[in-house]
Every structure is written in structure tokens, then in C-alpha cells.
């Protein structure tokens, strides 16, 4: 009977979520966001708009002449922000110089190197003896700014995203979307989605809704997914629009409001990035990208060991989950060689034996 | 005698006379105009800018028509130039308009060579004109002048400054063509940002020595308007061929959720200024500059390359024919020299090979002699040995014969003995 359940004693583990909440507030959160894209795409403005602060007060922009042979730098800005008692250590990783030189061959290499370095450091820390205060500097999300002036993705966009899609969560955005009419935005989004699939770029996928969520949530989630890549506009200035003071851009022909959903997808991006999916981004970084890196690392180490000591090794070798096709071939070849030499030796021995007799 | 007369006239000062009545040569410009109109005009525009930046749309907007063009792909391996020629007519004026598009510009990851196809195209048009000019039988008035009169360089509206590719390309083009830089898709820059952007661009151009086209300010009729326009460079333009209802009129505009940007509204963008400057005021000056400045520079460089000079070391003017002759002689001399060289080389080679072969022959001969000698020696040795052997055989035979005779004698004496005894008895 149902009433039995009601009469059961209240155990109390339903307070677990509250306990988790309390502990996490005490511990505080951290998040590392990377922004990448050509100069002048509005990256800094968007970051300022997202976190309602000004991270780039004294930055110096380079001239065109200085940028002809520019190399990509990695610059980190770390800020501690707090909201309703919840502390967030936010790190923004900037990539000035990307795509700005005349010859941009391999211009993403410093970026991939940086991401790998953070993985390597975490790997070492994790494997160390004292793991109390590990600093997590791994990049949790990379916002990639696609220029709205073209007909879709350009070769440099494709190459960059492909170089990074298995190391970090890539979220492509259409920058400066206030130069596109609604029709043009739709066309461009469709085109970019097509090209992402065509070139096999694995951008960050929103996790599937649980089946027991309410319809409203499911609807929102569906809209969110169909809206990618987000077409965003950022602003450092506050203007007066419709009787309110809002972040926006003032034009002779009208005012673009950053937080107006019919003007751009900024709100969707902010909600996704900060309000609903920040933790999922961190989880995917830890569970997928970092694990891939770690598995690769260990495999390389063990295959090296196997090469060095062929017979017995004093150190127990971890079993290779998927032996490299190449090493297998090599092993096969060497085996055959050995067999042949053995046969030759045998033959020669026989001959000598016969001769003696 | 004729020469001295001309000299006298040259030294005289020119005098101006007052006319007593209306002669009528003030109709000369009109005659010129009617001739030009009947001939038709020719105008060539080159559009340089990234794929998708709005080049075709702006041209469509400028000429208020839709020129056929396909959307370009971002994945071309290098830059191509696509010229298209159209015949337009307005009032009774015929215009042969050629629009050259740069397809694939700015798309490659490595853009070091991106400017080359553009420079090559401009040079080729100059070269074609030069060839036509230097022909013996020319038809310049029928010649379709394909030289580029104006290059519209489309700058992306980043709001910061020029891109590195823009700077590099404009530097390569500024001595070959009239450049008017325009800021494309200007509806993404607000007024204050635009002001700063324009200043930054112009200062970067100046500090890097890039010479863009300046609207001429010598002619009083257009001085004022041209000098104000010069201050508005680069023009911030928007293009659109779609009509939107604003107020109670249909105008060309772009419709956004927050308002509509009107192409011909001067407070929205500089399109009207560009059209005014490009088509309504300065077309003829652009053509003149192309011919008198850029083409002449090309021609001078090209001819200097070929070795022509205007004045020889004695400062006397050279005639083209003389230069031709000297060049030709030089060339023939050079040719002969090269032939001699090659012949020498050939002879030397032959000698060398001959010497080598002789050497080899000698060596072989020596070897042969050596072998012969060895053979001879061997033969002699053998002969000696044979002789020895023969002697031995002979001596052996002699001994044998001697031994046999001895034995025979011995036998004979034995058989003779008994006979002697008998004989003795008888007695």
C-alpha cells in the first residue's frame, strides 16, 4: 500500500543537494575561457559584455605594419568575481595575433601547444605524491569568432577548429552580427552548420535533455541547439533605449541592444556559457578531452618502453589497449626476419654436420 | 635654311591679341565633346577585397543595375582576376564598362603571393597598350583600352586599423593604379568608431608611404567639392539592391530589426559621396591620370629595362632608330661572342678527348709490348729446356748405343774364341 511509504521514517539524504551546494560555495569555482579569432572581431568587447566588467583597460593594439609578420601570443587575464556569495575565479586566455599576419601557416600551433601544456601540467600534478592543491589551468571552452563578412567558413577557420576540436570544447560564434539582416543570419548559420559537418569539425554539443524534464525546458533546449552558431554582438557602452539604460550600440538608423533576443543571440550565449552549461563544459573537458590526452600520453610512454627493452622488463608494462597498427607490422617483420635467420643457421649447421660425416 | 627660321621664331616672346569680334573657336570644346560622345567612353574598374565583403553588391548599387555574378568560394588556391565588360547607355552617352573582380583574395592561409596576380594583370594591360603604341600600323582610336582607371580597395570594418594584407597590397599597387580605399559593410560601425577608424587608416597609409588617389583641386569648378571629399576618405559604404519602404517612398536600404540603413542617406553612409566623386565629377581625371602618370611610368620603366635612354652620355637626344640600331649591333656582337665561346669550348673538349684517347692507346701499346716480351722470354726458356732435354736424350741414346755395341762386341769375342782353339789344334 502507498501509505506505507509515507509512514516510513524520513531518512534525510534528500538534503544532499543542499550539502553539495554549501560545500561548493565554500570551495568556489574556477573557469578558463579561451577566445580566438582575427583582430577586430569584437572578442574583447564580447568578454566585457558577458562578465559585465572591463578586463582590457590598458591594452595596446598593433598597427597593420607591425602585424605583417606577427606571431600568436597567449595572454592570460585572471579575475575573481563574486555574485550572491558564489565566488568564481575566471581566467580569460587571449590569443592576439591569430590570423593577422600575411602568412598564417600553422598560426594555431602556439594555441594547441598551450592547451597541451596545461594538460601535461595537470597530468603531472595528478600523478604526483602531494595532490592537495592541484591548480586546474586546463582550458574549459574556446569561443571562436567567425567573421560575418564572408559566405561561410574560410580555410583558416576550418584548419583552426580541426586542430583544436579534440583538445578543447570549441564553440563557434558569428561575430559582429549587426551587419547581417535576419535573412542573411539564417543563411550564414545554415551554411556554417553544413560546412562544419562537411569538414568533420567536432564542435561542442549540448548534452541531451533528460526525458523527465518539463516541456518548456525541452523546447528551450531545442531552440538553443537550432540556433548555433550563435550570432553575437557586444558593447562596452550603455545607451538609452525604450526608456531604459541598456548595453547597446548607437547608430543613426537605430539602436542595437545587446540583450534583446530579437537583435542577436547574446543572451542565449550567456545563458549557455554561464548559467546552464558552465559545469558541463568543465565535465566534458575533464572526461573527454583530458582523458584522450592522458590515454595518448600513456600509450606513447609504454610503446617507448616496449621499444627499449624488448624481452623482459623489470617494470610491469601496462597492457596496451589498442596496439598501434604500425608497431604490430614492425613486430611481424622482425619476427619473420628472425625466423629466416634461424632457418639459415639450421641449414648451415646441417651442412657442416654432413661434411664432418 | 629652314632650320634657322624656326630658331628665330622660338626665341620670340608670345604675344596675346584682342579680338575685334566673335570668331567662333570657342566652340572647340563642344566639337571635342560631340566627337567623344560619338566615339563612346571606356571605363575600367578593379575591385580588390576579401570574398564576401560586398564588391559585387556595391558595383550593382553604383550603376543601379544587377550585373551577373556567381558567389565565389572561399577555398580557391590562389587569387584570380575576372574581368567582365558591359555596354551601358545613359541619355545619349555610351559607356563601355569593364569590371574586374579579384576572386579568392584574402582566403588563403598564406597570403604572401596574393598581390602578384593583381599586379600582373595591371601590367599586362599596360603592356598591351604599349605594344599597340609601338606598332608600325596602329589603330589607337579603335583600340579597346583595357587599362585599369580606378582600383576600389575594400577594407573590412574591423574598427581597429588596416589589415596587414591591405597594407602590403596597397603598397604594391599605388604606383600602378589610382586607388580609392573604401570601408565596406559600414553599417557595423557606429559614428564615433568610424571617425577614429578613418583617422587611423589614413595615418597608417601616410606613415607607410602609400599614395592613394587624391581628387584634383586645380580646376576651380571642382576645387571646393573635391577638397571636402578628400577629407572624407576613405568612404564608408553600404550596398544594397533591395528596395525598402521608408516613409512613403521605396528606397534602396537594408532592413534590420532595429531600423533600416538607407544607401542614399548621407547621414547613414558615404555612398552618395563615392558615386559623386567616382562617376559624376572625376571620371575623366581618373582616365587622364591613368594614362599620363601610371602608364607613362610603366612605359618608362619598361623601355629603360630594354636599354633605351632619352639622352646619351653627351646629352644629345637619342632617336629611337639609333637606339634600335645600337641595341641590335650590341646584340649581334654578343651573339658572335657567345658563338665563339661555344666553339672554343667545343674545340677544347675535342682536344681533351683526343689527348685522353691517345694516352689510352699508348698505354695499351705498352701493355702489348710488355706481354710480347714476356711471351718471348717464356718461349726462349722453353726452347732452352727443350734443347737440354734433347741433349739428355741424345747422350742417353749414345750411351745406350755404346752399351749395345759393347755387348755385341763381347758376344762376338765369345763366339770367336772357340774357333781359335780349334785352329790351334789342327796345327
Automatic annotation (TrEMBL), chain A:
Checking PROSITE patterns in the record gives:
G_SEPTIN (PS51719)
Q: Which domain of life is it from?
A: Eukaryota
Q: What positions are marked as the site Important for dimerization?
A: 149
Which InterPro entries does the UniProt entry name for this protein?
G_SEPTIN_dom, P-loop_NTPase, Septin
User: Which CDD domains is this protein grouped with?
Assistant: CDC_Septin
Q: List each copy of the Septin-type G domain by range.
A: 27-300
* A GO cellular component annotation in the UniProt record: cytoplasm
Q: Glycoprotein among the record's keywords?
A: no
Question: Which GO biological process entries does UniProt record here?
Answer: cell division
Keywords for this entry?
Answer: GTP-binding, Nucleotide-binding
Keyword GTP-binding (UniProt):
yes
Picking any one GO molecular function of the record gives: GTP binding
Family, as annotated: Belongs to the TRAFAC class TrmE-Era-EngA-EngB-Septin-like GTPase superfamily. Septin GTPase family.
PANTHER family the record matches: SEPTIN (PTHR18884)
Q: What is this protein called?
A: Septin 5
**UniProt organism field:** Gadus morhua (Atlantic cod)
Gene it is expressed from: SEPTIN5
UniProtKB/TrEMBL annotation, chain B:
Named from the GO MF annotations, one term is:
GTP binding
List the SUPFAM superfamilies hit by this protein, alphabetically.
P-loop containing nucleoside triphosphate hydrolases
Concerning CDD domains, the annotation shows: CDC_Septin
Coiled-coil annotated residue ranges, if any: 321-406
- Classification via InterPro entries: G_SEPTIN_dom (IPR030379), P-loop_NTPase (IPR027417), Septin (IPR016491)
Q: Which domain of life is it from?
A: Eukaryota
* Domain Septin-type G residue range list: 39-305
Q: Where is the signal peptide?
A: none
The alphabetical list of record keywords is: Coiled coil, GTP-binding, Nucleotide-binding
Provide an example Pfam family for this protein.
Septin
Matching PANTHER family, A to Z?
SEPTIN
Similarity comment text for this entry: Belongs to the TRAFAC class TrmE-Era-EngA-EngB-Septin-like GTPase superfamily. Septin GTPase family.
Q: What is this protein called?
A: Septin
Amino acid at each position: 500500500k502507498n501509505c506505507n511509504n509515507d509512514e516510513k521514517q524520513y531518512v534525510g539524504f534528500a538534503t544532499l543537494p543542499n550539502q553539495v551546494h554549501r560545500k561548493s560555495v565554500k570551495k568556489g569555482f574556477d573557469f578558463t575561457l579561451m577566445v580566438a579569432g582575427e583582430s577586430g572581431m569584437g572578442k574583447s568587447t564580447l568578454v566585457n559584455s558577458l562578465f559585465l566588467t572591463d578586463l582590457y583597460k590598458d591594452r595596446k593594439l598593433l598597427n597593420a605594419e607591425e602585424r605583417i609578420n606577427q606571431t600568436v601570443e597567449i595572454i592570460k587575464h585572471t579575475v575573481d568575481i563574486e555574485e550572491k556569495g558564489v565566488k568564481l575565479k575566471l581566467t580569460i586566455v587571449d590569443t592576439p595575433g591569430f590570423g593577422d599576419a600575411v602568412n598564417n601557416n600553422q598560426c594555431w600551433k602556439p594555441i594547441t601547444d598551450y592547451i597541451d601544456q596545461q594538460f601535461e601540467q595537470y597530468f603531472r600534478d595528478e600523478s604526483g605524491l602531494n595532490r592537495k592543491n592541484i591548480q586546474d589551468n586546463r582550458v574549459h571552452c574556446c569561443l571562436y569568432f567567425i567573421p560575418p563578412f564572408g559566405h561561410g567558413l574560410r580555410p583558416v577557420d576550418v584548419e583552426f577548429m580541426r586542430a583544436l576540436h579534440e583538445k578543447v570544447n570549441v564553440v563557434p560564434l558569428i561575430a559582429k552580427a549587426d551587419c547581417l539582416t535576419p535573412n542573411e543570419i539564417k543563411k550564414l548559420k545554415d551554411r556554417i552548420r553544413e560546412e562544419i559537418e562537411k569538414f568533420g569539425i567536432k564542435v561542442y554539443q549540448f548534452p541531451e535533455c533528460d526525458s523527465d524534464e518539463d516541456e518548456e525546458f525541452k523546447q528551450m533546449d531545442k531552440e538553443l541547439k537550432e540556433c548555433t552558431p550563435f550570432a553575437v554582438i557586444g558593447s562596452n557602452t550603455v545607451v538609452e533605449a525604450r526608456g531604459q539604460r541598456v548595453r547597446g550600440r548607437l547608430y543613426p538608423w537605430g539602436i542595437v541592444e545587446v540583450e534583446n533576443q530579437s537583435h542577436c543571440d547574446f543572451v542565449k550565449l550567456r545563458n549557455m556559457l554561464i548559467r546552464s552549461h558552465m559545469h558541463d563544459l568543465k565535465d566534458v573537458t575533464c572526461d573527454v578531452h583530458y582523458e584522450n590526452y592522458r590515454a595518448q600520453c600513456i600509450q606513447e610512454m609504454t610503446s617507448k618502453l616496449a621499444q627499449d627493452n624488448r624481452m623482459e622488463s623489470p617494470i610491469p608494462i601496462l597492457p596496451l589497449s589498442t596496439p598501434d597498427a604500425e608497431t604490430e607490422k614492425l613486430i611481424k617483420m622482425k619476427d619473420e626476419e628472425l625466423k629466416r635467420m634461424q632457418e639459415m643457421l639450421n641449414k648451415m649447421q646441417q651442412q657442416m654436420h654432413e661434411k664432418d660425416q | 635654311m629652314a632650320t634657322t627660321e624656326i630658331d628665330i621664331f622660338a626665341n620670340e616672346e608670345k604675344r596675346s591679341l584682342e579680338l575685334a569680334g566673335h570668331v567662333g573657336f570657342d566652340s572647340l570644346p563642344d566639337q571635342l565633346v560631340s566627337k567623344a560622345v560619338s566615339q563612346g567612353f571606356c571605363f575600367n574598374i578593379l575591385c580588390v577585397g576579401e570574398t564576401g565583403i560586398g564588391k559585387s553588391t556595391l558595383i550593382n548599387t553604383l550603376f543601379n543595375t544587377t550585373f551577373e555574378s556567381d558567389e565565389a568560394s572561399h577555398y580557391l588556391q590562389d587569387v584570380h582576376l575576372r574581368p567582365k565588360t558591359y555596354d551601358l547607355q545613359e541619355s545619349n552617352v555610351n559607356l563601355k564598362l569593364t569590371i574586374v573582380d579579384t576572386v579568392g583574395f584574402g582566403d588563403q592561409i598564406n597570403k604572401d603571393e596574393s598581390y602578384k596576380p593583381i599586379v600582373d594583370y595591371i601590367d599586362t594591360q599596360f603592356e598591351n597598350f604599349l605594344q599597340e603604341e609601338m606598332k608600325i600600323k596602329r589603330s589607337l582610336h579603335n583600340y579597346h583600352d583595357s587599362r585599369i582607371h580606378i582600383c576600389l580597395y575594400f577594407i573590412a570594418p574591423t574598427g581597429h586599423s588596416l589589415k596587414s594584407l591591405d597594407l602590403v597590397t596597397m603598397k604594391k599597387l599605388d604606383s600602378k593604379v589610382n586607388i580609392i580605399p573604401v570601408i565596406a559593410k559600414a553599417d557595423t560601425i557606429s559614428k564615433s568608431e568610424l571617425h577614429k577608424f578613418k583617422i587611423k587608416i589614413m595615418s597608417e597609409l601616410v606613415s607607410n608611404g602609400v599614395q592613394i588617389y587624391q581628387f584634383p583641386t586645380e580646376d576651380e569648378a571642382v576645387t571646393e567639392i573635391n577638397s571636402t571629399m578628400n577629407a572624407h576618405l576613405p568612404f564608408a559604404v553600404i550596398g544594397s539592391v533591395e528596395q525598402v519602404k521608408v516613409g512613403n517612398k521605396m528606397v534602396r536600404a537594408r532592413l534590420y530589426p532595429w531600423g533600416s540603413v538607407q544607401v542614399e542617406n548621407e547621414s547613414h553612409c558615404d555612398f552618395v559621396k563615392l558615386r559623386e566623386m567616382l562617376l559624376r565629377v572625376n571620371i575623366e581625371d581618373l582616365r587622364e591620370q591613368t594614362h599620363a602618370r601610371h602608364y607613362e611610368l610603366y612605359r618608362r620603366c619598361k623601355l629603360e629595362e630594354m636599354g633605351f635612354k632619352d639622352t646619351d652620355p653627351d646629352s644629345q637626344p637619342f632617336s629611337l632608330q639609333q637606339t634600335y640600331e645600337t641595341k641590335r649591333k650590341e646584340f649581334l656582337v654578343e651573339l658572335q661572342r657567345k658563338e665563339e665561346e661555344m666553339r672554343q669550348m667545343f674545340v677544347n673538349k675535342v682536344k681533351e678527348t683526343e689527348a685522353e684517347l691517345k694516352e689510352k692507346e699508348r698505354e695499351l701499346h705498352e701493355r702489348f709490348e710488355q706481354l710480347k716480351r714476356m711471351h718471348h722470354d717464356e718461349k726462349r726458356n722453353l726452347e732452352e729446356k727443350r734443347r737440354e732435354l734433347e741433349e739428355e736424350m741424345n747422350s742417353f741414346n749414345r750411351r745406350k748405343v755404346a752399351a749395345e755395341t759393347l755387348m755385341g762386341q763381347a758376344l762376338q769375342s765369345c763366339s770367336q774364341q772357340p774357333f781359335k782353339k780349334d785352329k790351334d789344334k789342327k796345327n
